[in-house]
Automatic annotation (TrEMBL):
Keyword set includes Signal: yes
Keyword list, A-Z: Signal
Protein name: DUF1579 domain-containing protein
Gene3D superfamilies: Uncharacterised protein PF14869, DUF4488 (2.40.128.490)
Phylogenetic classification of the source organism: Bacteria, Pseudomonadati, Rhodothermota, Rhodothermia, Rhodothermales
Species of origin: Salinibacter ruber
Length: 167
């Protein structure tokens, strides 16, 4: 499947276009770069639902001002995506997403606030989304590694590369 290749290509294009010249700048904060989701949990008052196995490729790319996110559905047949502006305040452990576009129209215009911290190449955040808290862990990846995985999976005829196997 070419779903993952289209997803990563779209995400890269959106981030590069969002801030002219961003690709020529040094990172302005520790979140800039490409991230792969390692785990996702929906935390309700009386239970925790682990969503980690319910998606395929799941990538977030951030430049100094904007983010683009996309994930493949578990069957690899569809892509969910969104993006917009973000704020990161490491001194207060706060990450805020201002969603400007999303494959689910009800999410466009939504602002999500997360408690966030980065430890090495791992980014942890948790924040309220409706009646639950969304707890996610992301691992920084080298975009060249993602591209190589996509090329390898395409030549083998597989559709999912990012998010499969080890983080």
């Amino acid at each position: 499947m070419h779903t993952v290749r289209r997803l990563v290509g779209l995400l890269v294009a959106v981030v590069l276009v969002s801030t002219p010249g961003a690709w020529a700048q040094l990172p302005s904060n520790e979140l800039e770069g490409t991230w792969r989701m390692v785990s996702q949990e929906l935390v309700y008052p009386d239970s925790v639902v682990d969503q980690s196995g319910s998606w395929g490729a799941n990538v977030k790319i951030l430049n100094s001002t904007h983010f683009a996110w996309g994930r493949e559905t578990e069957d690899g047949e569809s892509v969910l995506a969104g993006g917009g502006r973000y704020e990161y305040h490491p001194e207060r452990d706060v990450y805020v997403e201002h969603i400007q576009y999303h494959s689910d129209p009800s999410m466009s215009g939504v602002t999500l606030r997360f408690e966030a911290r980065v430890e090495g190449d791992t980014w942890y955040h948790i924040g309220e989304v409706g009646d639950y808290k969304l707890r996610e862990v992301w691992k920084r990846v080298d975009p060249r590694q993602v591209q190589a995985e996509l090329r390898n999976d395409t030549t083998r005829g597989e559709g999912t590369a990012v998010g499969a196997g080890d983080p």
